[in-house]
Design goal:
Chain A: One of its GO terms (cellular component) is cytoplasm. Chain A: Belongs to the metallo-beta-lactamase superfamily. RNA-metabolizing metallo-beta-lactamase-like family. INTS11 subfamily. The complex is a heterodimer of chains A (598) and B (362). Helices cover 30% and strands 24% of the residues of chain A. Chain A has 598 residues and is α/β, with parallel strands linked by helices. Chain A has a 7-stranded mixed β-sheet. Chain A has a 7-stranded mixed β-sheet with strand order 7-8-9-10-11-21-22, with helices on one face. In chain A, a hairpin with a 6-residue loop joins strand 30 and strand 31. Chain A starts with a strand and ends in a 6-residue tail after the last helix. The relative contact order of chain A is 0.09. With 362 residues, chain B is mainly β. Chain B has a domain of 159 residues: Methylamine Dehydrogenase, Chain H, CATH 2.130.10.10. Chain B contains 1 helix and 28 strands. The interface between A and B is medium-sized, with 30 and 30 residues.
Chain lengths: 598, 362
């Protein structure tokens, strides 16, 4: 039976290290290569020894696919390709290819410079790794080799995030990465066509949450900002250049307009340039609304949001500033933070996950006294708030995606098995497909039923449709024919045509059985007795007495001869072809029972 | 508002029940099978006393769920056990389920408590208690009220009947006293130690046209005899009565709520007392709003009463036109936070809100 094998890699059940191995029709594909952000040692990397114990992985993998630029999906990529060793192609979308190296470099800086780690990839490794990347467009079928092809679908979630379909012949797997089924202010919702893959692999981390509505979250965010600004405080929002920053800007701009607020909002220039640049490149990746606005004007020509200058940080009075980097570990956002931290009227709102070791992480954990360079202690009196606008699919979203794609099997990753029983049952009941939830390191084998296309000859088709009622679209119709496998083609033809093509003559199989009957009379009288007997019993069959003294029942022939040695015994020869086996046997046993006395 | 959180359930619910450990349970009531019973863990913001604004954990988590073949109209946890009981059309039988959240996240169906299904039986109203043993009080009509032991399925009490009116609610006032409310508004008391005794009834003000009634009893009040707490009744025309069960000849208070005249919806009438605020109750089921009243301002006149607060959130959710305005199906009070309520509507929305006393009294 053909099968697809899936193994999630890595040790431990936590969220945060996506890396899945798929084996399909002899091809091996690695999906994502994430880093676990919570660990400081080797546990943060997926366990590649599963693929091979030693040596480079190039020969064992046909390709690597990265779904989006979040570190828990691509963070281990340079380690994998340069330190463990892989030279094959790495596929990702264009935005992901542009943004990945920036995030990786940022992360490398924090880990090596700030934390002083040594066993980590270098800047050069990141560059070398990215040279192996092949960027793909949405809905573009990419031939990895003669048999393996992949296609990216829009996944929402973050800029450039994609779901990938991997196809070999007529077996296919769809991997979702992280996706979102509801559109937000700057990204659309994930979408896939009815591709009916053999297997759909979906993240299920948020499957058990019922999310607070976006409106409430936004309203609370605006409330906090408003309160701080009203009392004369300053709000710092550290962001990464792309993604949520745009959403928050749009949100604030609309709010400022509506409430007629005067406090200035700033966006640091480095960000503006980069962001603009990326948005121009990847405009097709954002949603309709943004695209329309961008066409009309520059992305960052807001009425109320201005470019920031370092000197402004010292201005008195309320203001809101967006600055990079997002985790407060260096650069402008950290500088501003140090200036404002001492005043309790101020507020810092962290928009997302912060890696251990960064200032962002420390203050979110509750630390209020931080050690800066030169043994200086910084007392944090400003308010620290955390808010997450990240978009993931919940149970409803997962069901929607399954409904769209119509897979034959579903596999869920990143959830504790016993907590996923309910979702598994839900999926199985609603869609009548099997649902799997392997643990990390566990291999799941999915049996597939590949369809083999066969050409049917016109003659055979006409003949088969002429028999019986018209075929019902929903019910399979049984047809009889001969399957010819020649070169790489499969054809279904009628037996006669097959014989003709192959130059074979049809063999006829004929059976003859002897039945002894006690009858002293002459042969033709015995025949008459047999004929009358059979005619009486076999009312539904055509029983004929031929002039040459033989009897036919349908196409079965019965002849009588006298026994060579005993004149009182007649021998009936019953003869039939292979096709008439059933009737032949029946006649034989009937005659063996003897003739009625006449 | 001091706080408002809105959530969306995959399918609408008409019940919100509290379970131990601050869990909340909701269930689907759709016609087809595949209705889900969900036990949810509320976000930490709802569990703490102070409200936090931007707390990272703001979502409900599904702790465990079960699948019901029939629509779930009523659900009650059986105290001190890991069981719960549900009821719903097409008949008055009950389904018993087991929740074992540590082992698996599936709520398993355990057994069915069948009842003799006469003609015209609608779904059973239920109440549970675990005083002498885990019991469930159930019945769809006045002459079909019984108490069944949940685990052994033995019938321990059958009420003597005085009529066959449809019931709209029933409750245990204490481990021996039952309170039954008919859809016509009559209240009946019964003592299970005297099964053959006739039940006393208290009626409601007569009405020109037929209306449906439902009741709300105060529970959770520590150290107070439940039978001394007034029983509130709400009619489909908006009439509100308060009755002291020790003095049933007259009403304690009578008022009228300002509600639209009911269309078809008397199905979701709901009235409940605030467990942590003396004298406050809430009503819903007429439209997409929930009203909160201070009954201490009421008298006997039956005048229209002014609600202290009206929650309108559900009316803004509806996506369709006028015909699609969501109807609030159920509401319930938070057991500890005095001004927090949860409400659900027919469009699947689930709101958690904390209102502020308008004239500054807190």
């Amino acid at each position: 039976m053909p099968e697809i094998k899936v193994t999630p890699l890595g040790a431990g059940q936590d969220v945060g290290r996506s890396c899945i191995l798929v084996s399909i029709a002899g091809k091996n594909v690695m999906l994502d290569c994430g880093m676990h952000m919570g660990y400081n040692d080797d546990r943060r990397f997926p366990d590649f020894s599963y693929i091979t114990q030693n040596g480079r992985l190039t020969d064992f993998l046909d390709c690597v696919i990265i779904s989006h630029f979040h570190l828990d999906h691509c963070g281990a990529l340079p380690y994998f390709s340069e330190m463990v060793g892989y030279d094959g192609p790495i596929y990702m979308t264009h935005p992901t290819k542009a943004i990945c190296p920036i995030l990786l470099e940022d992360y490398r800086k924090i880990t090596v410079d700030k934390k002083g780690e040594t066993n980590f990839f270098t800047s050069q490794m990141i560059k070398d790794c990215m040279k192996k990347v092949v960027a793909v467009h949405l809905h573009q079928t990419v031939q990895v080799d003669e048999e393996l092809e992949i296609k990216a679908y829009y996944a929402g979630h973050v800029l450039g995030a994609a779901m990938f379909q991997i196809k070999v012949g007529c077996e296919s797997v769809v991997y979702t990465g992280d996706y979102n089924m509801t559109p937000d202010r700057h990204l659309g919702a994930a979408w896939i066509d009815k591709c009916r893959p053999d297997l759909l692999i979906s993240e299920s981390t948020y499957a058990t949450t019922i999310r607070d509505s976006k409106r409430c979250r936004e309203r609370d965010f605006l409330k906090k900002v408003h309160e701080t600004v009203e009392r004369g405080g300053k709000v710092l929002i550290p962001v990464f250049a792309l993604g949520r920053a745009q959403e928050l800007c749009i949100l604030l701009e609309t709010f400022w307009e509506r409430m007629n607020l005067k406090a200035p909002i700033y966006f640091s220039t480095g960000l503006t340039e980069k962001a603009n640049h990326y948005y121009k490149l990847f405009i097709t990746w954002t949603n309709q609304k943004i695209r329309k606005t961008f066409v009309q004007r520059n992305m960052f020509e807001f009425k109320h949001i201005k470019a920031f200058d370092r000197a402004f940080a010292d201005n008195p009075g309320p203001m809101v500033v967006f600055a990079t980097p997002g985790m407060l570990h260096a650069g402008q956002s950290l500088q501003i933070f140090r200036k404002w931290a001492g005043n309790e009227k101020n507020m810092v709102i962290m928009p997302g996950y912060c890696v251990q070791g960064t200032v962002g992480h420390k203050i979110l954990s509750g630390q209020r006294k931080l050690e800066m360079e030169g043994r200086q202690i910084l007392e944090v009196k400003m308010q620290v708030e955390y808010m997450s606008f990240s978009a993931h699919a919940d149970a409803k979203g997962i069901m929607q995606l399954i409904r769209q794609a119509e897979p034959r099997n579903v596999l869920l990753v990143h959830g504790e098995a016993k907590k996923m029983e309910f979702l598994k049952q839900k999926i199985e009941q609603e869609f009548h497909v099997s649902c799997f939830m392997p643990a990390n390191g566990e291999t799941t084998t999915i049996l597939t039923n590949p369809c083999i296309p066969v050409d049917i000859s016109l003659g055979l088709l006409k003949r088969e449709t002429a028999i019986g009622p018209l075929p019902d679209a929903k019910k399979p119709k049984l047809m009889h024919g001969t399957l010819l496998m020649k070169d790489n083609s499969f054809r279904l033809v009628s037996p006669e045509q097959a014989l003709k093509e192959l130059g074979l003559a049809e063999h006829q199989l004929r059976f003859t059985c002897r039945v002894h009957i006690q009858d002293p009379r002459k042969e033709h009288e015995t025949v008459l007795r047999v004929y009358n007997h059979l005619k009486g019993i076999l009312k539904d069959y055509s029983v004929q007495h031929l002039p040459d003294g033989s009897i036919t029942v349908e196409s079965i022939l019965i002849q009588a001869t006298a026994h060579s040695e005993d004149q009182g015994t007649k021998v009936l020869l019953v003869s039939w072809t292979y096709q008439d086996e059933e009737l032949g046997s029946y006649l034989t046993s009937l005659l063996k029972k003897g003739l009625p006395q006449s | 508002y001091r706080d408002l959180h809105t959530f969306e359930l995959q399918t609408p619910t008409r019940l919100i029940e509290w379970a131990c450990g601050n869990r909340v349970c909701v269930a689907g009531y759709g016609q087809s099978d595949g209705n889900e019973i969900l036990q949810l863990i509320p976000p930490p913001t709802l569990l703490t006393k102070e409200t936090q604004g931007l707390c990272p954990e703001r979502d409900f988590k599904v702790e465990c769920g079960g699948f019901s073949e029939r629509p779930v109209y009523s659900l009650k946890y059986v105290p001190d056990t890991s069981l719960l009981v549900t009821s719903g059309p097409p008949d008055s039988s009950l389904q018993v389920w087991k929740v074992s959240a540590e082992d698996s996240d599936v709520i398993k169906s355990v057994s069915t408590l069948a009842t003799e299904n006469g003609a015209g039986q609608s779904w059973a109203k239920i109440a549970t208690i675990s005083a002498r043993a885990p019991w469930v009080l159930h019945g769809s009509r006045l002459n079909k009220v019984q108490i069944t032991e949940v685990e052994s399925r033995k019938n321990v009490y059958t009420a003597a009947s005085r009529g066959s009116e449809e019931l709209s609610g029933l409750a245990f006032l204490d481990c021996n006293t039952l309170l039954l409310c008919c859809a016509t508004g009559q209240l009946c008391l019964a003592d299970i130690r005297q099964p053959q005794s006739l039940m006393e009834a208290m009626s409601v003000p007569s009405a020109p046209c037929s209306e449906q009634w439902c009741m709300g009893t105060r529970h959770g009040a520590q150290g107070l005899e439940l039978s001394s707490q007034p029983v509130a009744r709400l009619s489909s025309r908006g009439l509100l009565t308060l009755t002291d069960l020790r003095k049933t000849s007259e009403f304690l208070a009578l008022a009228k709520a300002r509600v639209p005249s009911p269309g078809s919806g008397t199905e979701f009438l709901c009235i409940s007392w605030a467990p942590a605020l003396e004298g406050y109750l809430a009503i819903s089921g007429f439209d997409g709003t929930v009203h909160v009243y201070d009954t201490q301002r009421w008298d006997n006149s039956g005048r229209e009463a002014e609600p202290v607060f009206v929650h309108k959130g559900h009316t803004f959710g509806g996506a369709g036109g006028d015909r699609d305005l969501p109807l609030v199906t159920v509401h319930t009070w938070h057991l500890q936070k005095p001004r927090t309520l949860l409400s659900a509507a027919s469009d699947g929305s689930l709101h958690v809100w904390d209102w502020v006393q308008p004239c500054g009294k807190c």
